[in-house]
Amino acid sequence: MATDKEEIPHLIANWWLQERLGSGYSGSIFRAKHIHTGQVVALKVQRVDHECPTNRYERGFYPSLQGGVGMPTLWASGVEGMWDYLAIDLLGASLDSLYRRSGKETMDLRSVCCIAMQMISRLEFMHSRGILHRDIQLGNATIGLSPNEKTIYMIDFGFSKRYIDSYTHRHIPDSKAKRDFIGNYWFSSVGVHCRGKVPSRRDDLEAVSLMLIHLLTPRGLSWTRNGVPKTSAAHEILKREKRLARPEDLCRGLPNEFEELLRYCRKLKFQECPDYQYWIEEFRELGQSHGFPPSSEFIWPPPKPVSVKPKSKASAADDLAKVLDDLGRMNLGENQTLADRTNVAKAVRQAKQDARRDSDKHTVISSDADGQENDDSIPPAFMTPKAHKLAKLTIRVSSATDNAALSDLVLEFIKIMKSNTSRTLIKDGFAFLDALNKQLEDPSVFVLPMRTSRPKDVSSTQTETSHTKLGVVARLQRDVGKARNNRQLATMVQDFGRVTNRSSGRTITKDGFSFLEGLARQLKALQ
Ligand SMILES: Nc1ncnc2c1ncn2[C@@H]1O[C@H](COP(=O)(O)OP(=O)(O)OP(=O)(O)O)[C@@H](O)[C@H]1O
C-alpha cells in the first residue's frame, strides 16, 4: 500500500483528512473532520487492493466490541473509490510514544501497575466477546483524549480473531501443525512466535506480561534491542533468544508478580480462561504495597515522586534487639526451642551494624503515599502484601517458643496461602518453611529472621518432576499424623519444600494443604 499522503485524497466519504497520526504496514491514520457535522475522528485508510486487507478484517470485530471500556467507537466505515476507511474515536498518544518521549530507561512502577490492570481488563472484555487481539504491543494501546486521558484504549484489531466459533459456540481447536506467525516480534508469546502454536487467550495475556516486563527493564527486553530483524537468520536468532530467556532472568530485580504472571500464562492450557480478576487485584495490591492509590487510572506524566526518609533501620534494629533480648530472658521451661543465646547476641550486633551502614539511604515513594511511610505495616519496596505477611510470619516462627505456637503459625501460613488464588510458594513462603524446619530440627540453632531468598541451583531440588512432587506430597500428608517427634516433622517440612520447586510447580496442591493441616495438628499433639 502506498502510505504517502500525496496519493491519498483529501476527502474520503465526507471526511476531510488533516494531519497524519501514524502509519503502519498496511495503511495510514489521519485526524479527519466530517465536512457537515464537524465531528473529528481518526480515519484509518487503506487501499482496497492491499495484499493484507486489515481494515476489512478490523471492521468485522468492531460491532462486538462496542461499548466496552477502552474500546474505540466505530463511527463509520466503508469503501470509497480505491479507499477502504474506518472512522473511529480520535485517541491520544500510544504507550509507545509516551514511553519514548519520557526519555527514561524504564517506566515507573505505578504507571506499569495501572497499565497492567487496564490491559488485563481490556483482554477480559475482548475475550468475553469471543475475540483474541493477537497483536498486543505498546503501539496498539493508547490513552484517550480529555476527559478520557486516564483510560487506556486498545486499537488495531487487524490481526484479531474469533476464538469462539460463531456457529458452534465452541472454542477453536488446537493443532499440532506449525503455523505461520501472526503477531509482533517483541511481545508475541513464546508458544505462538517461537513454536508456531495456535494462539488462544493465554497468548494475549503472555504478550501483556512481556510488555510489562519490557517497560520495567532498562533498555527493554533483550531481543528488542537490535531493532526489527531484517533477515530470516536474524529472526531465527531473535526467536531463539526469546525462547531461551527464563522468567527468573527476565524478571530479576522486579516484584514477584511479574515473574508469577509470566509463569502463570505459560502454564495455562490452550482453552483455559485466565483468571483476569485475580491478576488485576495482584497489580492493585502491588501498587498499594508501594503506597500508590488502588485506582487503575493511568496518570501521565506520573505524579512526581517525593523523597522521604523511611523509618530508620537503626530504630528497626533496636526493636529487633528488644525482641531478641526479651526472648533471651524468657523462661522456656521444658519445651525449649531457642537455646543458643550467643547466636542471638551476634545477630543483634550484625543487625545494628547493617542498620548503621544503611541508615542514610532514602527510598522514593509516590507523593500519594499519604505519609504512610512511618507505618510498620507497609511492606518494604518491591514486596507484595502476600510476601509481607509471609515475611512477618517467618519472624514469628523464628521466635516461637513451643509447638502450640508453631502449630498456630502453620495454620496462619495455610490461611495466607489459601487466601491467595495463585497458591504459589514464593520465596517468602520458602523462607517460612526454612525457618520452621530449623525450629523443628534443632532448637539450639538461632534462625535469622527475614531470610528471604532461597538458594538457587542447590542440588536435585530443581530437577524433581511434578510426578515426584505428587507422590511425595501424598506420602507426607498420609504420614504426618504418625510422626513421633519434631525432628521427623522437620524432615517432612524439608521434603515438602524440596519437591515444591520450579520444575515440579510451586503451587501448593490439595494434598499439600492437607499435609500442612496435619502438621499443625501433629504439632499440637506433640506438645
Ligand atoms: N484512534 C486513533 N487515534 C489517534 N491515533 C491513532 C488512532 N489509531 C491509531 N493511531 C496512531 O496510529 C498508529 C498506527 O495505528 P494502527 O496500529 O491502528 O495502524 P496499522 O496500520 O494497523 O499499524 P501497524 O501496521 O503498525 O499495526 C498508532 O500507533 C497510533 O499512534
UniProtKB/TrEMBL annotation:
Q: Where do Basic and acidic residues bias regions lie?
A: 351-363
Pfam families per record: Pkinase
Q: Keyword set for this entry? A: ATP-binding, Kinase, Nucleotide-binding, Transferase
Q: Which domain of life is it from?
A: Eukaryota
Q: Which CDD domains match?
A: STKc_CK1
Listed PANTHER family: CASEIN KINASE-RELATED (PTHR11909)
Q: What is this protein called?
A: Kinase-like domain-containing protein
Q: What is the lineage of its organism?
A: Eukaryota, Fungi, Dikarya, Basidiomycota, Agaricomycotina
